[in-house]
Amino acid sequence: MSTSLEQPKIICATCKIYLTPGKVTLSYLGSNFPVELYKCPQCGLVYIPEELARGKMQQVEAALEDK
Amino acid sequence: MDQKLLRERETRCNQENPPGCTAGCPVHVDARGIIAAIRKGDYATGLSLFHRMVPFPGIISRVCDQPCQQACKRKELDEAVSINLLERICVDNNKLAASITCQPPKNKKVAVVGAGLSGLTVALELSRKGYKVVVFEATDRLGGSIWNIPESKLPRYLIKNDFQIFEQIPLEIHLNTEVAGCSLLPFVQLYEQYDAVYLGLGSREINALDLNLELDAGGNIVIDALTFATSHPKVFAGGSIRRCDESQSPIVAITDGKIATNSIDRLLQNASLTANREKEGPFTTTLYTNIEGVERQPRVAALDAASGYTKEEALQEANRCLLCECRECVKNCEYLGHYRSYPKRYVREVYNNLSIVMGIHHANKMINSCSLCGLCEQICPGKLNMAEVFQEARQMMVRKGKMPPSAHDFALRDMKFSNSDKFVLNKHQPGFTFSTMVFYPGCQLAASSPQYVKKMYQFLAGKIDGGIGLMLNCCGAPAAWAGQEELFRQTMQDIKDNWRNLGSPKVITACPTCYSMFTRNFPDMPVETLWTVLDRVGLPDSALALRAQRLAIHDSCTTRYEIQLQDSVRNILGKMGHQVEELPLSRSRTVCCGYGGLMIYTNREVAHKVINRRIQESSTDYVTYCTMCRDNFSGQGKRAYHLMDLIFGSEQEGLIQQANPGYSQRQENRERLKISLLREIWGETVEDLQRDVKIIIPESVRRVMEERMILDDDIAQVIAHAESTGNKLKNTETDCFIGYFQPDRVTYWVEYFPQNDGFLVQNAYCHRLEILE
Fold first, then answer.
1. Given CB 3.0 to 4.6 Å as the disulfide criterion, which of B301, B415, B610, B672 pairs with B594?
2. Do B572 and B637 fall within a single domain?
3. pLDDT > 90: percent of chain B
4. Do B549 and B499 have their domain in common?
5. In chain A, where are the structural domains located?
6. Which CATH number covers residue B57?
7. B725 and B649 in one domain?
8. pLDDT tens, B27-74?
9. What is the pLDDT of residue B692?
10. Which of A11, A25, A57 is the closest to B767 by Cβ?
11. B291 is a domain residue
């Protein structure tokens, strides 16, 4: 899954640092997907923007559900 | 669904059965296809379809006696379509380039005696199959008795054109060669030298031929009616000699040739001569075609009879054709029409979807989108019930773990809410230790119009002696519709236990779906609908508060066969002074409002099409007796009452245009109803609803949440989690906080701002892919 994203102006509220691209694993119905998402480099809190959740991720969900 | 059941179901759908004309034609010409081509001005396709079944299209285009017309559906209205004239225009507008592809040669030889149309058909068809064919004709030309037809009726160039085909195939023709007992070539010799023989002897005197075949008392060859076999195992016979009345039908001669060809081919391949031959020759179709509302139109006459139709005349006549087909269910059910095919194909798609082990389950969405209302069975001439097919498929998918989790998850969680302590209530009437009856309003009336539950309960308690209890919960319909058999069984069991604890009283249901769930699943539970009860005991005084008006009744699909209920609803409206209008599809033929089968959750697009079609059936205001029907109609802008609105409402309330409260409010209404009933009717002390997090949701965000099926509760959980753990993000440009939380299967994201003592929600979205940290 490609998740090329614009640099968001988003910080981790706890660590007070900007999110940076990092490896995250998404999983559904037994399938795992290593993807690159923005996350807090310190505590690892992940950010999934609306466009990704309602776009590509929804397509992947639908495809896996019909598999 | 095993293969046997699949076939049985496929057979019930008659859409693929041929139209009357094709079935009535002894060679099964696709007249409907030809006429459809003519409508498009595509005469080449018309001719190609004609030629596919008729080896000599030029001849038949002039001299067919049209048995098809006897079976033309149009005949029931006015006159059969002039099919032969339409075939003729296809022939006349094409230069037929006779071409033929023969199969690789086989090492079997067949003799054909007589080159009339039946013998020539056998010669042509067997040559096409690769057999070596030798034709023996006593005269000096091919065609036999067709030369007796006057040239004015059958121009000779057409015969010539049709017979050009014989120059292209490896066929041996012996003209001026008489086969007879006393000739150089006796029949017995043919029988010995060839693997099979076809006798198309025309009007020749049988007795003089020394055929060495069994004859009947009249001196005719004994011929098997199905296979055209004679007493000699290698010899078949057809054409004029098969008919004692000496009728000369060219199309029947060709049919004889085709049937004999099939027999000879089967003989030479050691196949059964008799198996599966019922549909050879003319038969009666079982295709149903509804001609209601079709206007009468006289047959178009050709201005110049000798020349046949002009293109304009042909188009006019082609437009008279009904292009017979069934599609009754597809025409009446928006959902079945949405998938652009018909049940015979759908059943196969469902079967395939359930059978595949690897690959994409393309029919999942279709299976989960049906409202399961059963209108198709009611309408189908073969009584094919697609609701049963889809319901079974859903159960099978759940059992195999192949049900897409997103399909029914939201509806099932809503059901879980209704069957939790937040809503469940089972009580005797205050002052009673038993119940002779129990009012069961259902979860959706409580969700949408909770005030009516209390008013109706109070009315019933005052009207019915012997103690009337109250049961609040969900009847389990969402689980049944979702194919969740175990959950449904458990839900039913819980209801049964609670009902027994109340002393097994008679159950009075306000919701038609609850009624149908109970009557189908609890044979020992006495159930009656609220509406038949009210029809009997009378109405509350408030029932006359609204002005009398004309209202169109939308019957509920889950009780389509409950005539007494339907009558009572009409009686009640009458007692209140309202005038009843019947919609085109009502009572047993009513349609679903888009909620049944959980359609609105799994396929909003189709549900909205269903709703919109229904609400456009009449401009009159509607009245329903199911809450979801009213909410779905009013949600799409239709002025609609629930019967309770008319009984308890007032003009000032604007009830006819009330909005659906939305998913969150529906749950809250149930929760608050329970609290208010416990306090006001049973005098119990109950705490107010507590919300840990105060959230403010602007209308625009609420609309988004409804569409995405996100509840206030989901939002509150995300914010509570983000605020309590500190796990939240912040947009430095807007100062907006972003939190997420996965309470169960779905991960919810909320963008929000702290505001006073609460939080202003700016956006919410969700996904099912799980974030593995």
1. B610
2. yes
3. 90
4. no
5. 1-67
6. 1.10.1060.10
7. no
8. 999 999 999 999 999 999 999 999 999 999 999 999 999 999 999 999
9. 85
10. A57
11. no
Same domain, B509 and B416: yes
Helix axes B311-318, B31-39, angle to 10 degrees: 120
Nearest Cβ partner of A10 from B405, B732, B740? B732
Compute the nearest-CA separation of A27 from chain B (Å).
5
Q: Final residue of a domain: which of B251, B268, B285?
A: B268
- B415 and B531 together in one domain: yes
Query: Per residue in B645-681, pLDDT tens?
Result: 999 988 777 888 888 999 999 999 999 999 999 999 9
Chain B residues within 8 A of A44 when measuring between CB atoms: 773
**CA gap B26, B35 in Å, rounded:** 18
Mark yes or no for CB contact A12/B733 under 8 Å: no
Question: Which tokens is B14 given?
Answer: 């008659």
Our CA-based measurement puts residue B367 at a distance from the nearest CA of chain A, in whole angstroms, of 12
Residue A3 is predicted with a pLDDT of 47
How close is the nearest chain B Cα to the Cα of A5, in Å?
Answer: 15
Which residues in chain B are contacts of A10 at CB distance < 8 A?
729-732, 738
- What is the number of other CB atoms lying within 10 angstroms of the CB of residue B482? 27
pLDDT category at A2 given cuts 50, 70, 90 is: very low
The whole-angstrom distance between B361's CA and the closest CA on chain A is 5
In this prediction the pTM is 0.91
CB contact under 8 A, B766 and A12: no
**CATH 3.30.160, applies to A1-67:** no
Cβ-based contacts of B769 with chain A (< 8 Å): 26-28, 33, 57, 60-61
| CB of A55 less than 8 A from some CB of B | no
Query: Which residues in chain B touch residue A43, judged by CB atoms under 8 angstroms apart?
Result: 727
Distance between B159 CA and the closest CA of chain A, angstroms: 59
Q: List chain A residues with CB under 8 Å of B771.
A: 24-26, 46, 48
Question: Is residue B284 in a domain?
Answer: no
Residue B241 has which token pair? 């000699």
Let me know if residue B62 belongs to a domain: yes
Shared-domain flag, residues B609 and B726: no
B431 and B478 in a common domain: yes
ipTM of the complex: 0.95
Interface size, chain A vs chain B, as Cβ–Cβ contacts under 8 Å:
90
pLDDT tens digit string along B493-503? 999 999 999 99
Question: Structural domain tally of chain B?
Answer: 6
- Taking alpha carbons only, the member of B740, B737, B13 closest to residue B383 is B13
Out of B350, B367, B401, pick the residue that ends a domain.
B401
Is A5 within 8 Å of chain B by CB?
Answer: no
Helix (H, G, I), strand (E, B) or coil at B741: strand
- Closest residue in B to A8 (Cα) is B731
Enumerate residues 6+ apart whose C-beta is below 8 A from A43.
A12, A14, A15, B727
B772·A27 Cβ contact <8 A: yes
Is residue B450 in some structural domain?
A: yes
Q: One-letter amino acid identity for B397?
A: M
At B353 the three-state DSSP class reads: helix
Indicate if B154 and B117 belong to the same structural domain.
yes
Residue B354: count other Cβ atoms within 10 Å of its Cβ: 18
Which residues in chain B touch residue A5, judged by CB atoms under 8 angstroms apart? none
Among A67, A4, A3, which residue's Cα sits nearest to residue A33? A3
Cβ atoms within 10 Å of B6's Cβ, excluding its own = 18
The boundaries of the domain holding residue B559 are 542-659
Question: Which of A8, A29, A46 lies at the smallest CB-CB distance from B771?
Answer: A46
Q: Which two tokens stand for residue B474?
A: 């969900």
Q: Does A14 touch chain B (CB under 8 A)?
A: yes
Question: Residue A15: what residue type?
Answer: C
Rounded Cα distance between B676 and B674, Å, is: 6
The CATH number of the domain holding residue B164 is: 3.50.50.60
Tens-digit pLDDT profile for residues B261-290: 999 999 999 999 999 999 999 999 999 999
